[in-house]
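User: My advisor, Dr. K., asked me to get a structural model of this assembly before our group meeting. I'm new to this, so sorry if the format is off. These are the inputs:
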Amino acid sequence: MKNAVCLKEKGMRSQNSGKIIEMPGGSGRFRSEKKRRNLINWFFLAPCLFALTLCAGWPLLKTIYFSFTDAALDSLNNFQFIGIDNFVNLARDQDWWIAVKNTLVITVVAVPLETIFGMIIALILHKNFKGRGWMRAIVLIPWTIPTIVSARMWAWMLNDVYGIMNELLIRVGIIDSPIPWIADNTLSIVSIILVDVWKTTPYMALLLLAGLQSLPQDCFEAAEVDSIPFRKIFMKIILPLMKPTIIVAMIFRILDTFKIFDLVYILSSGNSATATMSVFARKHLVDYADVGFGSAAATALLFFIAFLSIFYISFNRRKLNKLS
Amino acid sequence: MILNIIYDTLERFDLLKGQAHMKKFLKFAVIGICSLVFFDSNCVTLKVTCRAKGVELKLFQEAINQWIKLTGDQHKVEIVTLPHSSNECFALYKQWLSAESFDVDILQMDFPWIGAFGDILIDLNQFYKDGEIDKDDIFTTIKNNMHFNGNMVALPAYTDCEVMYYRKDLLKKYNRSVPNSWQELYETAKFIQKQERKSNNRFYGYIFQAKAFEMLTCNFVQLIDTFGGAVINREGRAVVDSQECVDALVLLINCLKNASTRSVLNYSEEEARGLFQSGNALFMSSWPYAWSLMNDPSTSVSGRIGVMPIPTGNMEKGKSSGVIGGWFFTVSKFSKHGAVAADLVKFLTSKEQHKFRAEFAYAPAYKSLYKDPEILKKNSFFSVLSDSLENAVARPSSTFGKDYPRASHEIFNLINTALTESLEEVSVEKIAKKYLGRLNRRLNKIIDRQKDSKKKKSSEGIFQKLKDILGTSSESN
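Assistant: The format is fine. Below is the predicted structure of the whole assembly, which you can bring to the meeting.
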């Protein structure tokens, strides 16, 4: 993209030299110039768009297509259209609604927690202290471990018989008999949320820290001169100014949490009481080999995410309009 | 013929005029090249799938090396290791099948999959001479499972049958006898757990695998069999809501509530073995593979473990049984080297190989090997296993065929949920009835749907034929 911009500028410069510079809002000549630039833009975008249609668009359309059929995994060339039957069955499926509920619970609890902890860490890292560079690197570690690895790691740590978590809690004296963190349905969800928060707080912290560092310094200096308490600075300066960053970061996390799969797969006993939407979709797609119904579940999940994205984009647009 | 063509071309260009020795040389050269090519086509690379649980992979690797030597180092074998969980292996096979590039020759398959994959496996009977395989020596349940639509599509790699492990020293300490029935087992487990808790607050009476996966289906099928119940009756309908099944589930829930830990709800085989091996449990039901691992001198329970068949639940109707498992070798229809692959399968599943693996506690599928003194000396518990295998119960995979995974998912899912919910509920019987009723409805639904789709398929077939006769394009969609 950067290259494209550079090239565009170069092109413009060579055009401008020896010609009268046209002012905006003017003649038809300018419009054709704009058209030309548009074309160049499309030209540079084409490879990217092509790759996207190939590796994202095509599977997506195929999934939506399959969701209206009764295809099975071992006979993908031999199926019939059955209309919206799959979606009707999905809406009737008790397990699907449990999965939706679980996904929503995890999202609603985990994302705000991540934001709060991320904000705290970001505020600390924003301060100037010795070894700040090191701290920033260290804080990122949970985010850099592949989710499946950290899930396995936590599954061992949370094991009630030989897990370290119970051992610690018992030694400290908080509990007196081991807690089955990942065997009980409710506790499984709690564990999933805990591990998700542990894993993605650094990501939040990083995004928020970037936002903090781009805030105008004069407000803070003025506040310092007036010796305003930090609580007030946070509420009146940081939060309002950080709002767009926080919203973007939260939306990212919400979209991600909606797709949560690996943590649930490892950290729960695998019954439908702890399944999330993507676990449900996988179970039908792969385990039951029911590509039609599984695709319908995947498509429904897609609509949830698409709805959120559209909401986010329109929200952002309104915000931009207000600014201009 | 090739030679003639070459001569013709060369003669046309006047290259071979009067050069008899050249002609001779050429003849040799061509024959040499041809035989090389021929030899090359004889050397094939087989792809074999194999699990890597315990020492399995090492044993099969060794056997395959033996076979390669026997066949004169002609062939190469590439082993594709399978995922740990059998549910995942199944999904993987399905995915391979749906992608049409299917280049694995020999597939290792779990007991209930033969019905699901039967139509992509080759009939191995054609590679056996009369009497070359002693079918009468193979346990009946296994023999039945080797066949699909009358074809012998699979041969046993080793078999498995759940047994009950117990701590000899603890039974002796509290002066209790080895239980004969589930009720006795429950009482003993409850009592000793209570006593042992005084010194060890992490001691459990009876542990089993109740994570929502295949093993829970095994445990359930076996448990209801010992109570005289069944998943499917003779008419092909699900009958898991019978009183026998309710009794069975009630007993399991009681065990869970009073003589076990709720973390078994997330246990697969290895977690349970870990707990038993660390000396924190009295009874454990599991596969035979655990025997040699737990009796390793480095473990704290080595030499203090006993084995018995899974006890009876109902003295009149039930029997002491065990669920049968085990893995088979099959040859895929898509294999380009079917005959060579079949030869390897023949070697791997021969009686001698079963005997070799029996030394490492992989249970053979041949009855006569259980009387072999050499094997019994190494694995004294094989005498118990042989009884269990005679009475073994199979999972309902032949009824469900392709839909078996769905049925199994329903079973383990609902039983796991019932067990989980029972921990908060006082009325055990109510929970058992509620979930078994639900399970029964769902299983019958699968059976009904299967019948419908079969009807639909057969009518579709007629349409197809009509279309073909009329000469219209048979392709739809």
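One thing worth pointing out at the meeting: DSSP finds 19 helices and eleven strands in chain B.

User: Perfect, thanks a lot.
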